[in-house]
Design a protein that fits this description.
heterotrimer; A alpha+beta (234); B alpha+beta (225); C alpha+beta (259); A: 234 residues; Ribosomal Protein S5, domain 2; 5-stranded mixed beta sheet; 4 helices; 9 strands; 27% helix; C: 259 residues; alpha+beta; 4-stranded antiparallel beta sheet; elongated
Chain lengths: 234, 225, 259
């Protein structure tokens, strides 16, 4: 059976509706909210600040530390509050997705903390979290080579698609989810995971789709940053 | 010939290419990648001759030699004080630099500057690994008494002070407050009248929020009428 | 807290004004937004000044306590997210967050705001558990009041999911009918600093306060109280605080009833 039509009427390479906002948490040095379809992530950045325990300190450069968490009520079946194996892993891959862009040479022994919270989940939460975190890091004034964008691509039934929602992830005839983060200026990939089943040439094709989508995302992220600092220009 | 892609005073965000070609030199908050100069932070482009830099619109305090800052005592050691000046590491004020007056080596250091005291100090040295040395020997470098302290983004300090101190002059004059702005964004305000102090703080917050809007001076004057 | 701002706060209070320009009995502006997370059966965001708290309600089916076989119950939890305040640390819930959630729990439970009997599905076997999770997003003082208000706002917009007795499964996609919430026990916190009594303490006031009293009330009836802080309270001070709490709760009640 062929997957002929997406439930919400999107084209196969079309993302859901996106909203981005910068500066949502007063106490944080930088913060942002990112919504794609019904997935909502907020990110806050604190630092550079002193890193404890001290043995983790690096006198040559600062450290980026990312924490990912889903609020208990962000999904149908309540999640027990507190860290899980899944959230720890996603924190780690988020860190890796963002690290190639941040320049922490000027902050020896310090840490830049990124906290990502998923308020509402409809698939693609780690990518939404990375998009929010990249904006929050820029808002905090952390020196960066590029603004990372991330989207999940994959295969639903027999079709390659961009930005799977939960119903597509759960597609009964099989779905493959492949979250990708891209440094848009160089097209380099900083997050790549896959769950499901795809052929090598499909993966390459899906990566091209992700690249295109990330460029679009990147525009929205930059626009949101400009909006906060607007009035400060000219 | 090099090509400037972004106009002077336009806003850029990290990763945006400002200049193509090797005729220009990266100066601050930008970096070179092959033949391109690229923004490293959110800021306004400033091209001066062949130097390309950004005036940052956000960010934290980067300690520089000779900056006069406001600091707070966080710890006391055998030989001096450790001060929070808004950097990730605490800055060191050595006993011998602590005052123009003579301090006996056996003195109780808490009697001179106690925990959580606030002082004006000058940065004498910054190492690559982030160590910062302070001195309080010099005119105007002293412990602050009374008043209140607020923190603003260090990137906004130049606007709060204004050209040749014009903005801070307006605030002081119209609110009748004493105001001292540390380069690190720690701001001390004092007056007899809490209403005036509140006014001065509201004004500083307004400047922080709209730091580069056209006609900010008029706006400030309007608020302080 | 640094000495300058500490002394300043004490001095300015003697002039009968607060550091943010408020009078002693002034509550900050309250904003309530409901339905902020659609996978929750009910949710809300509350802002008191710059303090922001979000609450989500989930429903699960569980077994009743043996002493109340025909009653469902509430389970309140709170997490002080590290994003809310640079001083919050990672790890298991802090004592403060446990206290906050317990005080929210008592306000709702003791005022019998929810008819627990109506949460019974099958006596002695199956009842609804109402899981109320509180998250601090930005801490600018008095998260207690924000949390309790957000919990009430979320409960008032909670819809019951469908329970299939045959399959013993909950269908979260099909929600209808309201949660049996009949009362609004509003919490109001008051700080004592020196001789002064302040409504709705901000972050700097919270750091310096000698004592704090949180009062949960409906109309003139008090249903829960919690005294915090290391200092003590005189009877007259308690009297003043209760009067203020009852008075202030009217405004919050209006706000929440509009939702």
């Amino acid at each position: 059976m062929s997957y002929t039509k997406r439930k919400d009427g999107r084209k196969f390479d079309e993302m859901r509706k996106i909203k981005a906002e910068v500066g949502v948490i007063k106490n944080a040095n930088g913060s942002a909210k990112f919504q794609i379809g019904d997935t909502i992530a907020i990110a806050a950045v604190y630092g550079p600040r002193n890193l404890y325990p001290k043995f983790l300190q690096n006198p040559e450069e600062g450290k980026l530390r990312c924490n990912y968490n889903m609020l208990s009520f962000s999904v149908d079946e309540r999640i027990r509050p507190g860290p899980s194996r899944r959230s720890k892993e996603i924190g780690l891959v988020t860190e890796r997705a963002l690290s190639p862009t941040v320049n922490l040479k000027e902050f020896p022994n310090a840490v830049v903390d990124v906290f990502v919270e998923i308020i509402q989940a409809d698939a693609g939460t780690r990518c939404a979290g990375i998009c929010a975190a990249a904006m929050a890091l820029a808002d905090a004034g952390i020196p960066m080579k590029d603004l990372v964008s991330a989207v999940s691509v994959g295969k639903v039934g027999d079709k390659l698609v961009v930005d799977l929602d939960k119903s597509e992830e759960d597609y009964e005839e099989g779905a493959t989810d492949m979250p990708v983060a891209i440094l848009p200026r160089s097209d380099e990939i900083s997050l790549l995971q896959l769950d499901g089943e795809m052929e090598a040439k499909e993966i390459i094709k899906a990566l091209e789709m992700a690249k295109k989508a990330c460029l679009e995302l990147n525009k929205i992220q930059k626009e949101a940053i400009r909006k906060k600092y607007k009035g400060e220009g000219k | 010939m090099g090509k400037i892609l972004v106009k002077n005073k336009e806003m850029v965000v990290p990763g945006e290419v400002i200049v193509e070609g090797m005729d220009y030199l990266p100066a601050g908050n930008v970096f070179r990648e092959n033949d391109k100069i690229i923004a490293e932070t959110i800021g306004l482009v400033n091209v001066d001759n062949r130097l390309v830099k950004l005036i940052p619109l956000t960010g934290f305090y980067k300690a520089k030699k000779n900056d006069v800052v406001i600091g707070q005592v966080r710890n006391i050691t055998f030989s001096g004080w450790l001060m929070d000046i808004g950097c990730s590491d605490l800055a060191t004020l050595n006993l011998r630099d602590a005052s123009s007056d003579f301090i006996d080596k056996k003195a109780d250091l808490t009697k001179i500057y106690n925990f959580n005291d606030t002082v004006i100090a000058k940065i004498t040295n910054v190492t690559k690994t982030g160590y910062i040395d302070l001195t309080m020997r010099g005119p105007g470098l002293t412990k602050l008494r009374g008043g209140r302290l607020i923190k603003v983004a260090a990137s906004k300090v130049p606007r709060i002070i204004g050209k040749q101190g014009s903005m801070i002059h307006i605030i002081k004059e119209k609110t009748n407050c004493k105001v001292i702005v540390g380069q690190n964004g720690f701001v001390w305000i004092q007056s007899e009248d809490p209403v005036n102090e509140k006014k001065a703080i509201d004004t500083i917050r307004l400047i922080e929020k709209e730091s580069a809007t056209e006609g900010l001076t008029e706006k400030v004057e309007g608020l302080l009428k | 807290m640094d000495n300058i701002n500490k002394e300043y706060l004490m001095q300015i209070l003697n002039k009968k004004i607060r550091t943010d320009g408020r009078k002693f009995e002034d509550y900050r502006d309250i904003e309530i937004e409901t339905d902020i997370s659609k996978n929750a059966e009910g949710s809300a965001k509350v802002r008191i000044g710059e303090t922001e708290v979000i609450v989500g309600v989930k429903l699960e089916v569980g077994t009743p306590y043996p002493d109340n076989p025909d009653e469902g119950t509430i389970i309140v939890g709170a997490e002080f997210l590290q994003m809310a305040n640079p001083e919050f640390e990672s790890g298991p819930p802090s004592v403060q967050s446990v206290e906050l959630s317990r005080v929210v729990d008592r306000g709702i439970r003791e005022s019998k705001a929810i008819d627990f009997k109506k949460l019974c599905i099958e006596e002695g076997k199956k009842v609804w558990l109402v899981l109320i999770d509180i998250y601090a997003i930005n801490d600018d003082g008095n998260m207690q009041d924000a949390a309790s208000l957000a919990a009430l706002a979320a409960l008032s917009n909670t819809k019951m999911p469908k329970y299939d007795k045959e399959t013993e499964k909950v269908d979260y996609k099909e929600r209808k009918g309201k949660l049996p919430l009949s009362k609004m026990p509003i919490e109001c916190s008051l700080a004592k600093i020196g001789e002064h009594i302040l409504v709705d303490p901000g972050l700097d006031e919270e750091r310096l306060l000698d004592a704090k009293l949180t009062v949960a009330s409906i109309g003139n009836k008090i249903h829960a109280m919690q005294k915090a802080g290391v200092g003590t309270l005189k009877v007259e001070e308690v009297e003043t605080m209760l009067k203020l709490a009852i008075e202030k709760n009217k405004k919050a009640l209006e706000k929440i009833n509009k939702k």
